[in-house]
Amino acid sequence: AQLHYSVPEDREPGFSVGDLAKDLGVEVRSLAARNLRLVSEGVQRHFQVDLAAGVLLLDSRLDREALCGQSPTCSLHLQLVMENPLQLHRVEVDVLDVNDNAPQFPKPEVLLEITEVANPGTRLPLEVAEDPDMGSNSISTYELSPSKHFALSINVRGDGVKMPEIVLEKALDREKVPVHHLTLTALDGGNPVKSGTARVTIHVLDANDNPPVCDPPISKVLLEENVPVGTLVTKLNVTDLDEGPNGDVEYSFKTSNNAPGKFTKLFSLDARTGEIRTKAPLDYEESSAYEIAVRARDKGSPAMEGHCHLRVELIDINDNSPEILLTSVSSPVQEDAAPGTVIALIGVKDSDSGDNGQVHLQIAKELPFKLVSSFKEHFSLVTSGPLDREKASGYNITVRAVDSGSPQRATQKTFYLRIADVNDNAPNFSSPFDTAHVQENSLPGTSVFSVSASDPDEGSNAKLSYSILDNGMQDVPISTYFRIDQDNGTIYTVRALDYEQDKVFQVPVEVKDAGSPALSSTAVVHVFVLDENDNAPSIVYPSVPKGSAFHQAIPALAEPGYLVTKIVAVDADSGHNAWLSYQLQGSAEALPFQVERRSGEIRLAQALRESEDSHRLVVEVRDNGTPSLSASVVIVISREENSVQDFSKSLDLPQSSPEDTNLTLYLIISLVSISLVSCVMFGLVAARC
């Protein structure tokens, strides 16, 4: 038999679908005996048989949309088997649709695009919402949220499906409203009505109707020189009201083909971001400002472009040290140069500007020089005081240049200035008076003394030569006694000197340099001749020819102590060499006379015997020199009866013969000379002290 039942899809398990026992015409109590059982055609078991009640029950909740999808009808086919006798019954269960599903769009958000130049009436198709329910429970209509520019149009396809479309009713302007947000609602025909919504976003596509605009079109940037490479100079502020490629701006430098801008070597431009950065060191001294032209072009079709003008002004920083240029240096300079003499011409240069380029020159204050400004950035180094090569033969002059920047930068240059000698110093003896001693009878060429002089000048101005001056103080020119080595100042004797003739010499020595004009100075060397025992004593009285004897008579009755006579002798030497002593030369016989050792007096030592008529005496006069020299005289003493003891008669001295007078004069001159020499020596010693 064929049984047919229907059941709504939303019934719970245990729901009674149909009365099998009644519809099959079988007693309920026999169902168990006949082993009534259900055989489902599907894999999943949705139903079960209640043998006690004889009814068909739901075993699980049914979902029509899952079982049959969008099929207009949904039926499940079952088989019932009974035994005794074996019978097979077919059961068809219709699953009835219930409005248990709300309409649903394939996507919760719908993205649409429309060009801003689209004409009113332009249609934008929308996706159809889905509702698993069938019949009146399926989608009934669509609704669109209110909009000034868009409206909803619903078309019905041949299969009855409603197709929603958005219709443009008013022209668009993307620059005013770039995006429109709408809500599309799908409503089904169930009771109660169920709905589903989708957000509709309509993007207004840009049309390239706006050029890029630079704000501001002309700008100025201040930038310090020497900033690191890669420093951001500026970022161009360019706007394009379009979007997409139409608003995507590319940047490039605007240069002339004939004269490409120098700035392109110093600055880089990011074509995408519009950032301008340095790509090389900037030097204010090379250029203080740069004019940069930038082209901003969008990617629309046709492309539109705008222009930006940027002036980059560099701020000078004190990055350059002053330079010192020695244009001319007059070296050496004469030490007698007058104050104000130009020594050097100095130029300064500083590539910086303003205060950074203002340079001041300095030199040490203790130097005898000063700086005089000739004209801008040029100076003259001149003498400010007297120069003296003997104090300073040269100067290390350090010129320091300092700018007025902050912080200051300085440079210094040192050069050596040599001072040329001028013959402005006369030679100087170590002493204006010197004393020397020389033995008499020294061989010619004997070194007497070496004078020494110095001259603080240099070169030929300090080359000295010595000479002896004839000042006429001696009767004979001094050059006949002495000579001098003109190079080293050593004084030599020209001939042997005789103390007895000249005891002291004043030797005037002149030293002269080789400068032009030559300068000189003098000194006096007192040369004292030292005595040598070269003169034997000379017997003045009695004066007898050589080989003869002096005869002297004495009274016969003369008593002991009687002065017989006196030997008078002189020695041309001086000092110890002139100290004389008297003595009798030895005799074999004893003589009644004696001689005073110092005075030379011969006296009677004992009374004469009558048998002694005469006596022969040899008196020796000896000096105290080394070796000792002597002279002797023979005196014959005879006894005379009528002789009177009268010393003057006994001496029998003639009245001052010319020879005796000359000898006495020589003695006086010798004493006076010795006194004068002593006074001179004392005076020299006192002066030197």
TrEMBL record:
One cellular-component annotation, GO: plasma membrane
Lineage: superkingdom: Eukaryota
Keyword terms, alphabetized: Calcium, Cell adhesion, Cell membrane, Glycoprotein, Membrane, Repeat, Signal, Transmembrane, Transmembrane helix
Record Pfam families: Cadherin (PF00028), Cadherin_2 (PF08266)
InterPro entries, A to Z: Cadherin-like_dom (IPR002126), Cadherin-like_sf (IPR015919), Cadherin_CS (IPR020894), Cadherin_N (IPR013164), Protocadherin/Cadherin-CA (IPR050174)
MF terms in GO: calcium ion binding
Transmembrane segments: 663-687
A Gene Ontology biological process term: homophilic cell adhesion via plasma membrane adhesion molecules
Domain (Cadherin) ranges: 47-105, 106-214, 215-324, 325-429, 430-539, 546-656
Cell inner membrane found in the keyword field: no
Protein location: Cell membrane
Keyword Coiled coil: no
Gene3D superfamilies membership: Cadherins
Membrane topology term: Single-pass type I membrane protein
Function summary: Potential calcium-dependent cell-adhesion protein. May be involved in the establishment and maintenance of specific neuronal connections in the brain.
Name this polypeptide is given: PCDGM protein
Origin organism lineage: Eukaryota, Metazoa, Chordata, Craniata, Vertebrata
